[in-house]
Amino acid sequence: MRPVSRRAFLKLTGGAAAAAALAGSPAAFALRQLQPISIGNPLESYPNRDWEQVYRNQYRYDGSFTFVCSPNDTHACRLRAFTRNGVVSRLEQNYDVSRYTDQLGNKATAHWHPRGCEKGLTMHRRVYGPYRLKYPMVRQGWKRWADDGFPQLTPENRDTYLFTARGQDTFARLAWDEAFDYVARGMIAIAEQYSGEEGAKRLEADGYQPEMIEATHGAGTRTFKLRGGMGLLGVIGKYGMYRFSNMLALLDTHVRGVGPDDALGGRIWSNYTWHGDQAPGQPFVHGLQASDEDFNDLRNSRLHIQCGKNLVENKMPENHFFNELIERGATIVTITPEYGPPATKSDYWLPVRPGISDTAVFLGITKIIMDRGWYDEAFVKAFTDFPLLVRTDRLQRLRAADVFPNYQLGLSHDGPSFALHGLKQEQYEKLGDFVVFDQASGQLRPITRDDVGERLLQKQLDPALSYSGQVRLVDGSDVDVKSLWELYKIHLRDYDLDTVHEISGAPAHLVERLAQDIATIKPVAIHIGEGVNHWFHATLHNRATYLPLMLTGNIGKPGAGCYTWA
Fold first, then answer.
1. Is 45 exposed, middle or buried (0-12, 13-18, 19+ CB in 10 A)?
2. Average pLDDT score over the chain
3. Which residues is 80 bridged to in the sheet?
4. C-alpha R_g of the chain
5. Measured at the alpha carbon of residue 34, what is the angle toward residues 28 and 40, in degrees to the nearest 5?
6. Beta-carbon neighbour count of residue 356 at 10 Å?
7. Is 476 left (phi over 0), alpha (psi -120 to 50) or beta?
8. What is the pTM of this model?
9. 423 backbone dihedrals φ, ψ, rounded to 5°
10. pLDDT digit string, tens, across residues 208-224
11. Mean pLDDT over residues 365-369, rounded?
């Protein structure tokens, strides 16, 4: 007899026992029912399989409608709801993006499919869920404050009515008419308490700055801050809140007794500007609130850098473009304190200290690119302000009118600054024209804000990047000037690799690797987000992210640029 191992014995006896147990069980019946059916003539006889209809009925519906899912993430996906007995049973994408048109007749493309995300497709569960709020509620402390006639919120009253312990308060249920009444009485009380001289004294006691108090012009309604927010999209959020703010002028007429010409409404606050959802430093670079990109363009990058942005878990209806980027073989780099979802999809990850210490990373990369000559000189001269001369006594740009006697401003009103960008003459007179050192002629030459790219070549200007010297002004005085390029070289002396590592915690060899990748891989895109924009010095970070792109010509081209996402 051949010896049997313990493992083989258990395997044999276990299998036999399982087979014996299964033979007479309901599971065996179910398995037999799922076996392929061999039928000679299905018209003669066919086994009863009505039990399968249970599963088909799960997806049966008697009606459907389309709607736009517009939560705080603003994607506005058009979905289709399927109903049964008047109840939404499931949601699906509608597959009609390619038929979208704007007012000019422009159409989207099928590349935008699929629309929708897991959050939107399960929204009906929240609508019918047990935790949906179905009636108005108010804090008990606030309600007592209102019932007591809205007494002034002194430090003692703030404690009494739990304004200083709101997380410990409870809520009271109201009828809708009661809720409207409390809201209206609260607004009247605020407008009355902060109007006139007494109102200004209360604001001052509350710590408001003199400029803010002056901006109220004595109207308590000016203390109302109304935000056209993303959480309330469309007509209600964008227009309704602003119209309501203006409508408060009617309240001001009753509180201060002023006429319609003097009545003042509330204050309008932009959620992007006020909350830092968008990059506050990008206007410093290009004058616009944010650099705008069609998500289609994501796939065109060859080097994709995420910094304070998560395109894996967020921007969910559009992150399939990020997947396509990976499929096309792009290099993915993530700069974050934590090894999160974007880092898992990256070729390499730069860990940095929390905060915006990665500002030092981008300044260190800029220094490497400049010191090692990895920059695109033609692009830097034609499309950036690096060649512009700066007065070292004021650290302001040297104005052409300060150098050239009887200088006349050189911008044409047919040029892009006036015709496309909306520049006003009074703004232009305040800004003036600039000065560069022209290597072709060996002289200082004036330059306008329109003299970029081909326009610069047409003027046969060859601005010097590196220039330092003394300039005689029209008033007879002399002033030392340097090109912005030279000033950046001075500024970046403090951002060698060891110092960057010390500030940010990022490994020095990865900072150097990223600098080389930015200099050699094109196009490059840097994506930043609210993880950066909400920090106090976000303006410095936003500007620093542009520097490597400006040096390497990664601006204004498909797949290139710096983009901010909220």
1. exposed
2. 89
3. 66, 92
4. 33
5. 120
6. 24
7. left
8. 0.79
9. -65, 135
10. 999 999 999 999 999 99
11. 98
